[in-house]
Design goal:
The complex is a heterodimer of chains A (about 100) and B (about 400). With about 100 residues, chain A is mostly helical. Chain A contains 5 helices and 1 strand, in the order H-E-H-H-H-H. Helix content of chain A is about 60%, strand content about 5%. Chain A is globular and about 50 Å long. Chain B has about 400 residues and is mainly beta. Chain B is about 10% helix and about 30% strand. Chain B has helices spanning about 5-20, 115-120, 165-170, 205-210; strands at about 45, 55-60, 65, 85, 95, 100-105, 110-115, 125-130, 155-165, 180-185, 200, 215-220, 230-235, 245-255, 265-270, 285, 295-300, 305, 310-320, 325-330, 340, 340-345, 355-360, 365-375, 400-405. In chain B, the strands form 6 sheets. A 5-stranded mixed beta sheet of chain B has the order 7-6-14-10-11. In chain B, strands 18-25-24-20-21 form a 5-stranded mixed beta sheet, with no helix packed on it. The longest helix of chain B has 20 residues, at about 5-20. The two termini of chain B are about 20 Å apart. Classes of the chains: A mainly alpha (about 100), B mainly beta (about 400). Strand 1 (about 20-25) of chain A pairs antiparallel with strand 5 of chain B, so a sheet runs across the interface.
Chain lengths: ~100, ~400
């Protein structure tokens, strides 16, 4: 029993130390469950938002009016420094308030 | 087709769809987790590196939620442990020959510690402690609040092994006048304008608490990358926001650190409950810190059909901020009467405490089982949920609805 077990443990230990020394993982692609609804402004919204985060960050939020979405977009620009132009911000807010409004 | 087999079929489809998505192909229809829970409905089960099937909240930065079935035991397996990152890109590769933990700022001896230094230069310390996201269960807030719409699975409990933070700071020699240490990890935002995820703790808090660790081991193994490999901060009793992952730099500073993730991020109303009337804004806020008392029923799962007159085993976990769980009670009559459950082994005051109870349903029909816990200083859980605009501190009495007969 022991003779069979030891070489196996040695291999396991070598694999474990190799894994511990340099760890690399792949990053899975954005999942398709959170694809933005079609509508006017969807392309601008997608392009501007996905440079920092996947669209599930948008679609999971409580639906809200233009005031809510303007607050969110303003926060992304002012607090998180998202490089979004004034015109694009307006388009994004309109899109979100229409497709994810209450 | 019964409800149960429909669920199983949907789960199988979910796994298959995940494989497609991970392979870069577009699944014809978004695979979803079959779930009656409105907060989790429509969320896919996904398998990330070093992880088992977890409930997807967001892809990038990744946020993955642990299914409730794993909370029928005290220790959460590493591959089922939840994931929450704040900024992207996240670290995908760490070479231990290069990785160092730097200790800089107002110290006499700046340090550059290797993984081996952490293990050999400081006494080895262990603590079993709950790591729970501040926003765990945010999806259940009413009125709803913006932010990650978590169910209840942004929590886990593990045995953490590492070096005491106070020993590391003592080795660096914290200078007079230093007030806080800041903690930064390898996750760095894509744009310099995006605030980097950096957190802080008071020096006095660190030096008074021998359970705050820089952990290099989780449940006897190296940390999964997505849980902070090669080392993360462990702050028992406090929310996970302080448990900085993939830790790379500790800076000792002589001013309170108030960048975004400390202020205005991660703050609660400055009052005893950390709450305000629903829909209102607090006048003053403070950084979030201690966790509230919570308990959950992990088994049976909601919607399970149980027979009349036959004993059913109920199982779950309870935890608090470190006073330790004194007792867990269940009610099957809407909270009119409560009875004690049996507690599992004590893994320490910061750990999940297992509980179990046997209940024999007396009559057919829908039944609700409720659970609440008390800690050793008498703190418990409310029948009505508290509310705050960030969706933190939730600890309402939980329940599962079952079908008898």
């Amino acid at each position: 029993m022991r003779r069979i077990l030891w070489p196996g443990l040695l291999v396991l230990a070598l694999v474990a130390s190799a894994v511990a020394a340099d760890k690399t993982i792949p990053m899975p692609p954005d999942h398709t469950y959170a694809t933005l609804k079609p509508g006017a402004g969807v392309e601008v919204t997608r392009q501007q938002c996905v440079s920092c985060h996947s669209t599930d960050y948008i679609v999971m939020q409580p639906h809200g009016n233009a005031r809510q979405w303007d607050g969110v977009v303003t926060k992304m620009i002012k607090v998180f420094g998202a490089p979004v132009s004034e015109q694009d911000a307006k388009t994004i807010v309109e899109y979100l308030a229409t497709q994810y409004g209450n | 087709m019964s409800a149960l087999s429909r669920r199983d079929a949907a789960k199988r489809i979910a796994r298959f769809g995940t494989v497609l998505a991970a392979g870069g192909l577009v699944a014809p229809r978004a695979p979803v987790l079959a779930q009656d829970d409105p907060v989790l409905a429509g969320r896919p089960l996904v398998r990330y590196p070093e992880k088992t099937d977890l409930i997807l909240l967001t892809s990038r930065p990744p946020q993955l939620e642990t299914p409730m079935k794993y909370f029928d035991r005290a220790i959460t397996p590493n591959d089922a442990f939840f994931v929450r990152y704040h900024v992207f890109p996240i670290p995908l590769e760490v070479d231990l020959a290069i990785w160092r933990l730097r200790v800089t700022g107002r110290v006499d001896r700046p340090l550059e510690l290797s993984y081996d230094d952490l293990k050999t230069r400081f006494p080895r310390a262990a603590v079993t402690a709950v790591n729970q996201c501040s926003g765990n269960s945010r999806g259940r807030f009413a009125p709803r609040v913006l932010g990650g719409q978590w169910g209840d699975g942004a929590m886990g409990n593990a045995e953490w092994v590492g070096a005491r933070l106070k020993d590391i700071l003592a080795s660096a020699g914290v200078r007079q006048g230093a007030v806080q240490a800041t903690f930064d990890g390898l996750d760095k935002p894509a744009f310099p304008s995006v605030p980097d995820f950096v957190k802080s703790l008071d020096i006095t808090r660190i030096m008074d608490d021998p359970d705050i660790l820089v952990a290099y081991q989780m449940n006897g193994a190296p940390l999964p990358m997505l849980n902070g490999f090669p080392a993360r901060l462990v702050v028992p009793g406090w929310y996970a926001t302080y448990w900085v992952k993939n830790l790379s730099e500790i800076e000792i500073v002589d001013q309170p650190f108030e960048k975004f993730w400390m202020k205005p991020g991660y703050r609660i109303p400055d009052n005893a409950c950390g709450c305000v009337p629903p829909g209102t804004a607090p006048s003053r806020t403070v950084p979030i810190s201690r966790m509230t008392v919570r308990s959950f029923i992990a088994s049976p799962s909601p919607g399970t059909r149980v027979p009349v007159g036959r004993p059913v085993t109920l199982k779950g976990i309870a935890f608090d901020a470190g006073h330790g769980i004194q007792g867990v009670e269940i009610s099957v009559d809407g909270g009119a009467t409560w009875r004690r459950t049996d507690l599992g082994g004590d893994l320490g005051r910061y750990s999940f405490r297992e509980w179990s109870a046997t209940w024999t349903p007396g009559q057919a029909g829908p039944a609700r089982v409720m659970v609440r816990a008390f800690n050793r200083i008498g703190e418990s859980q409310g029948r009505e949920p508290l509310w705050n605009p960030a969706g933190y501190l939730r600890n309402v009495v939980e329940h599962v609805d079952l079908q008898v007969g």
